[in-house]
User: What shape does this take?
Amino acid sequence: MMRIPNQQTLASERIVRNMPVRFATFAMSLILGSILSGEGVAAVPHAVKVARTQAIPACTRFVDAAAAVGGTGTVARPFKTIATAIASAPAASIICVAQGVYRERLRPGNKPFTLAGGFQRGKAFKVRDSALYVSKAQGNGTGSFIRIEDPGPTGTQLTAIDGFEITGYSQAIYRDFYVSQRFDITNNNIHDNVCEQPSLAGAGFALSNVSGTIRGNVLLRNRCDRGGAGFLNDSLNENNVSFLNNRVEKNAGTEPATSHGGALYFFTNRLRITGNEIIENTVTGYGGGLFVGAYTPGGQFTNARMSWNVYRGNRAGGSGGGFFCDDGANCASEHEIYDGNCGGNIYVDGGSDGSGPTVAKFNHVTSVNGRAVGCGAAGAGVRIDKASLVADTYSFNNAIFWGNAAGSDFSVSCERGCASARITVTYSMVQKQYVNNGGLIITFGAGIVAPKNPLFVAPASCDFHLKSKVGHFTPAGLVLDTVSSPALAKANPAGASNLDPACAGNRSELGAYGNSAEASCAP
Assistant: This one.
């Protein structure tokens, strides 16, 4: 079974409110291709509120828990169990599953297939709404709903799970094989799965050596030593996973004292993490919401591109309540909101001796209301630690820091190799004074704005758009305010972005929405 990676060879120890719905539509490829490239402006992607799909695929086998024993897998005579359908179906079949409870533990071996749940019973599999007609995979506290080990599908062979409720398992969706394959998890409600023993990772999903998409899922109240919601590992250093538009809430990493990744514990060569709400997750150690790590001495590199995610109200017993980038990973965060995370909003830790450097770039981020461990006092916006000679590099541009502890927009600590690190902050609203234990130097460059109330529209409701006398974004159009934020028109580049005919002004504001389709209009 997939366990927590050995710490000597992998990782060191160290919004509840709905965001506004974007009515403008862009192709998903445009959204993902342009958000981080800086080429053009894309719509703002948001997380789902419920897991739901209504699309009807080209079904080749049919399952209904209420069917009579002895079915043949047709629409008229569906199988009673998913396991029977998988056993009889040819490779690459699409197995469509009616509403009902399925108390199954599937071991499909090397057969690829797609499971499509959420069909209304009695409608000849022509009506599908997975939020209304629930296909529920119900475990008994052990094992997996789907478990793929040696042998498993390989290469372009696809395993996909779409439109199910999955609960009551130990590691609900599990894949661990030394050859890569395609794997998709979409539109599922994956909740209340609890790892049955210590040293496991990934109660909701635990996937090794896969490329694919994890999109539109609700991951709720899953618990494991690490990665309560999910664990990704890429020992082959060749895979690409997109984690998109998921709601990740109240999951927990429970390993005593040192857990990494309360909700998400990710090691994959190429990661795109976009448009997720990561809220109220907990970890005993580090990275309450999202942990991204690498193991460069073993040839395992991670390049993570995060955009349009909201990290809110997560808790870490150590550091990095919202997000933690560690151990030689390459992380880029753009257009993101970090709000009220306990143990601080963001944590970056340098690579260990013998590893590559940790590199993290933050552009157009809002880091506000950081809380200390335990949540009882204000805490850091960003914490940076270093304990090796590796040349770690961190940059922060076009950011807003506000409501963090006095002098703690940044809190840095260094044991050795302090001069080898490079930390720069430009075009940001930030306190220049910072907590410094050990000699790390932060260089504050051009465009620094003295801290002043940014005048967010409704921060208590996680609306961090900026007020403007000539209009802030709402789904229905620009709304005029009586005041304008001091963070408007302060970003770099400072050119005008005429994204709305009603606004002829500059959209290059500081913070998460700068130079985007949801930026405010500057006077």
